[in-house]
From TrEMBL:
This is Cation:proton antiporter. It is a multi-pass membrane protein. It is found in: Cell membrane. Keywords: Cell membrane, Ion transport, Membrane, Sodium, Sodium transport, Transmembrane, Transmembrane helix, Transport.
Length: 871
């Protein structure tokens, strides 16, 4: 076909795509439904004009439409990677982890259940081999979330619901296409009845191989993009190449799932790029991919819809029965997961609850779309699949897709209205009336000042003021009728507003580059969690989410175990540096929220609510300050380096603002401004680099600062630094077990521990030690030592501890003080071998000051005379 004709047809399709969105909004129908209908009409019209004798004028256009080189490979290798990759870039992965159970259940378990349900139902109702039936089941298992997500967003449904559906669709596509590839291989080999166990055993291999390929490709791409830090167009170009190379590499070279590879590449880029690429480059990268995905999604849908009339040309009456079987089996399988498995997991406290109306909406919103049609087209194109199987695959997949789009898609909004998901709650309605009243009062004041400044006609001002006053009076009256909102509900609404303002502040700081994009994503995730927790749990939910934002997660604890057991300190150092920067960012954001409470929330909800929010905000700030202080004690000097970096970045932001103001005032030319901005960008690139946290250097600094080692020389400190090893413990971790003889002494570099013995409790902090008593007395300890805060311990084995004890008077004095505190006689701890001359002089001076005769020495380990004064 002539390239000019193809170009004309494609350009015309873009016009159709452009007209479809406003048409969908006007008809209040999902965008994908409109695209499908337009595509079917265009395809059916082209067939009609080619076969009719009414006119031949449109035959060239019809031939061009039907002659488009639309093949399944175009969908799978061109459009599908674009859609999947953009979906992963736009995800908030940290928030996805909160709902990973329902997402995985819907994305993986539901796909397998739907595949088996449709497959065995078709096997019972038709003469197709089980391989073909399972292949059809895999094809119709993938869902298109665009319609239901767009409607949920239009009715302001909770973000969590849209997040679950988006996460399900992303992994759903990957799982369904992986299963499709598996059963397609059996169908092409002519295996009529494959062993299900063998098929499912190969499924993890496809996933693991694809995931590793995508992860490796993304790591390499980010490394190259980081080298081209100052060349944004080069970074964008590499990002465009990444999903296609990952897909082709996994499919053609590794023999794994290309879809899984694209998903893994996108997730990896989403996670590691914020720490490696400039914030503006990330913003532009996401905007580019949003445009590419919009075009790809629309084209794949309308091009697939063009094929529907041809796929249905050979439909028979009996095929409608099989389409009904597919519909019933697919909906039943999805209903079992939504109303059977998910509530069961919620009762087991494995999965967070998903409300029944939302489950109904998810069930009816399981539309099928372009991916289903593309997979069906791939089967119909294969010369190694039997003709009858190809015919039925095309008809059943197309018929089921049309049912979901035409029946479910067009009634989805009505279903949501029937479920009441498009209506505000009574509290939200009452709040909206109060917000309108307060806003109009502010507007009236601003309009009065504006009319005075512009010296408008008094008659016009009076006339408009009267109209505005009537509206304000009605708003105030409606607000007074809603004055019965409970204080508890007002607190909840105030917390939601506060968390939303916190989110807006984070976005503003991110645009100003005061906080890095990497940390902004995490604090944005925490702000989203605050909003949802306040909405579902009120004040207690907000407080739980606030505590979680400063708590140590499971990944941090895993990094601690890697460091303690395997000596792999890099993950812990990276997470600790992230935590430092996160706490500094949180502190910056939280200190700006007080003015919002006084300026906005107080006017709407009153003084009592505002005072309570101030109290909760103060607690959050104190928690952040406490966590930050704990890190400062653990890693001396590193927090100061981060604060210096923050000051440098703030100064650069202010400098940029001044240059922009001078440029706007005409005080400098465009050439001078460009030169200054290039210099500023170079300095900003250096300021963006976060100082590296070296745990070994921090350990040496902790040793030097410890009072226990104050009398050691530099050479002895270096030897001690090589002998001591750092151990990081979280709150609640047991350091020494009761009745278990310790083999080491633990010096507390930072944090706090609790020692419990015989019903008594002692708390020890920085500069103290545990485990020395059992070693020196050679007795099994009757005490248990447990960390009560995240702590850094310096560990020394028994032999080295005894040698150190023989050289350090300060350490011996600390041992004696510790023994005295617990009622143990120090004379039972030391021998002449343990007490060097320096320590004996130190002891004699102390005894002489107290006026007590020192004890008489005997053999090693023996004591005579009166007990030690501190015994």
């Amino acid at each position: 076909m002539d390239i000019v004709v193809i170009t004309t047809v494609i350009a015309s399709l873009f016009l159709v795509i452009g007209a479809a969105e406003p048409l969908a909004a006007r008809l209040r129908l999902p965008y994908s439904v409109i695209l499908a209908v337009l595509g079917v009409l265009i395809g059916a019209g082209a067939i009609f004009f080619l076969r009719t004798d009414l006119t031949d004028a449109l035959n060239p256009v019809a031939e061009a439409i039907l002659g488009l080189p639309i093949r399944s490979n175009v969908f799978l290798y061109v459009f599908l990677p674009t859609l999947l990759f953009q979906a992963t870039l736009g995800m908030n992965l940290r928030r996805m982890l909160d709902d990973w159970v329902p997402i995985l259940v819907l994305a993986v378990v539901a796909v397998v259940v739907a595949t088996l349900s449709v497959g065995y139902a078709l096997s019972w109702a038709s003469t197709l081999p089980i391989t073909a039936c399972l292949l059809i089941g895999a094809i119709v298992s993938t869902t298109d979330p665009s319609a239901v997500v767009s409607i949920f967003r239009s009715i302001s449904a909770p973000r969590r619901l849209a997040r679950i559906i988006e996460g399900e669709s992303l992994l759903n596509d990957a799982a369904a296409i992986a299963l499709f590839g598996l059963f397609m291989g059996f169908a092409m080999l002519g295996v009529p009845d494959p062993a299900l166990g063998e098929a499912l055993a190969r499924f993890p291999i496809l996933i693991v191989g694809g995931a590793f390929t995508g992860w490796l490709a993304a790591r390499f791409a980010v490394w190259i993009m980081a080298l081209f830090r100052r060349h944004e167009l080069a970074q964008l170009s590499i990002s465009v190449a990444l999903p296609y190379l990952a897909y082709i590499g996994a499919e053609q070279r590794v023999g794994a799932s290309g879809v899984i590879a694209v998903v893994a590449a996108g997730l990896t880029l989403n996670l590691i790029a914020p720490g490696r690429l400039p914030p503006q480059a990330l913003i532009n990268l996401r905007e580019l991919w949003e445009v590419l995905a919009h075009w790809a999604g629309a084209l794949i849908f309308i091009l697939a819809a063009l094929l529907i009339p041809r796929l249905l040309e050979e439909v028979r009456l009996g095929d409608f029965v099989l389409i009904g079987v597919v519909i019933l089996a697919a909906i039943a399988a999805r209903a079992v997961i939504l109303f059977g498995l998910l509530p069961f997991l919620t009762r087991l406290r494995v999965s967070p609850a998903v409300e029944r109306p939302f489950r109904m909406a998810i069930l009816w919103g399981g539309l099928r779309g372009a991916v289903t049609l593309a997979l069906a087209l791939a089967v119909t194109e294969s010369v190694r699949v039997p003709d009858e199987t190809k015919r039925l695959v095309g008809i059943l997949a197309t018929g089921f897709t049309l049912f979901t789009l035409i029946v479910q898609g067009t009634t989805l909004r009505a279903m949501i209205g029937w479920l009441g998901l498009d209506r505000l709650s009574p509290i939200d309605e009452a709040l909206s009336r109060q917000v309108v009243a307060v806003a109009l009062q502010t507007v009236r004041e601003d309009v009065a000042r504006t009319t005075e400044n512009y010296e408008l006609s008094h008659d016009i001002v009076r006339s408009e003021a009267k109209r505005f006053g009537e509206r304000l009076e009605a708003a105030v009256k409606a607000s007074e009728e809603s004055a019965d909102i409970l204080d508890r509900d007002r607190v909840t609404l105030g917390l939601i507003a506060l968390a939303r303002h916190e989110r807006d502040t984070i976005l503003a700081r991110m645009r100003e580059r005061t906080i890095s994009a990497r940390m902004a994503e995490q604090v944005l995730s925490d702000a989203d969690r605050l909003i949802e927790s306040a909405r579902s749990g009120g004040r207690s939910g907000y407080q739980r989410a606030a505590r979680r934002s400063v708590a140590y997660g499971w990944t941090f604890r895993a990094a601690i175990r890697l460091t303690n057991r395997l000596g792999l300190s890099r993950p812990l150092a990276s997470m600790t540096a992230d935590r430092f920067e996160l706490l500094l960012s949180q502190r910056l954001i939280l200190r700006d929220l007080g003015a919002f409470i006084d300026g906005r929330i107080r006017r709407i909800h009153g003084r009592r609510v505002a005072d309570l929010l101030h109290e909760l905000l103060t607690r959050r700030i104190e928690a952040v300050e406490t966590a930050l202080e704990g890190l400062r004690l653990q890693y001396p000097g590193y927090a100061e380096e981060l604060e210096r970096r923050f000051i440098r970045r703030t100064a650069l932001r202010l400098e940029e603002r001044e240059y922009a103001a001078m440029r706007g005032d005409g005080l400098m030319s465009a050439e001078v401004y460009t030169a200054l901005m290039q210099d500023l960008d170079a300095r900003r690139a250096n300021a963006e680099e976060r100082p590296r946290l070296d745990l070994a250097l921090q350990r040496a600094e902790l040793i030097r600062q410890s009072p226990l080692f104050a009398d050691l020389g530099e050479a002895a400190l270096k030897r001690l630094g090589r002998a001591l090893r750092a151990r990081y413990v979280d709150a609640g971790e047991v350091i020494i077990h009761k009745d278990s003889p310790p083999r080491s002494v633990f010096f507390i570099a930072s944090g706090a521990v609790e020692l419990e013995s015989a019903g008594q409790t002692w708390r020890l902090g920085r500069g103290e030690m545990v485990g020395q008593m059992a070693i020196l007395t050679r007795k099994v300890p009757r005490a248990e030592v447990r960390a009560i805060a995240p702590s850094t311990l310096l560990v020394l084995d028994e032999a080295r501890f005894r040698r150190l004890l023989s050289r350090s008077a300060a350490l011996q004095e600390a041992v004696r003080a510790s023994a005295e505190k617990r009622g143990i006689s120090p004379e039972s701890l030391f021998s002449d071998e343990d007490e060097p001359a320096a320590a004996r002089r130190f002891t004699a001076e102390r005894v002489e000051r107290r006026g007590i005769r020192p004890p008489v020495r005997g053999v090693i380990g023996a004591r005579s005379g009166p007990p030690w004064p501190w015994g």
